[in-house]
Give the backbone structure.
Amino acid sequence: MKPAGIYAKSTDLFDLVDRRAEFSKVASGFGFTEGPVCSRIGFLLFSDLRSEKIHKWTFSVGDNDPAAGALSVFREKSNRANGLTFDHQGRLLTCETGPGRVTRTEKDGSITVLAERWGDKRLSSPNDLVYAIDGSIYFSDMPRRNVPDAHERTNEPAVYRISRSQIPGKAKLERASEEPKRANGVALGPKHNKLYIADGGARNIRVQDIRDDGSLAKGRVFAELESDERGGLDGLKTDESGNVYCTGPGGIWVFNSQGRHLGMIVPPEQPSNLNWGRGFRGLYITARTSLYYVSTKVPGTRTY
């Protein structure tokens, strides 16, 4: 990787992030960080896959410093939690890669399983997810063939949709897309009418229109990520102007709404995922052993 910094292919990148932007190290000393998500009520959660914990960073009251706060454990034995997000009620939604399921943490701390089987097979390894304005949850599921119970799992790359239901236990699971070769990060466009998918198998970002019923139309390649740097495609986010941010080889790749590569945001460590901070402003970045923050100029897409 290049030294930490902002590397522009187009000066348009500087409309999104200052050319001299600095990275704040928020917390460190973890095994492999993933899935950052910032609550509306003053804290941020992120996963550590190796310790199987979800950590909580509580912001200091009255302090606008994004790196000021206190660290605690939100959930022990997280079942190798990966992607995290919230729903409209502020309940945590989690991709649990260990058992292969998507869960919701209720207000009382109990766990509700939202999806764990497709047909007669268990899901393979739910990786990342996003909550839509209509209550749908879109999540990626990646093949996992190197586990003892692989024959019991779907082991097919796909994106699924959990539809919203007012009746507990009645939510419907749909296989929304089989287009990606290895679906990873998922993100909604600013109007919630498009779903972006980081395809680690094809090393590109795909985009599919969302129909009125929540299903996905046939997609297309939005952008290619061609690089000699190490690292695969992973986390994905969009901002209110339709720009797309994807963690990939060498850092965070930034594209405009037309798929033109504007440049790179390169944190001190190889990033795995990213998400918007308080008020959907600024980016928190999970990067190997640490959690970082960098200020940005355009607010992120609101999804909860």
About this structure: The mean pLDDT is 95. The first strand starts at residue 5 and ends at 8.
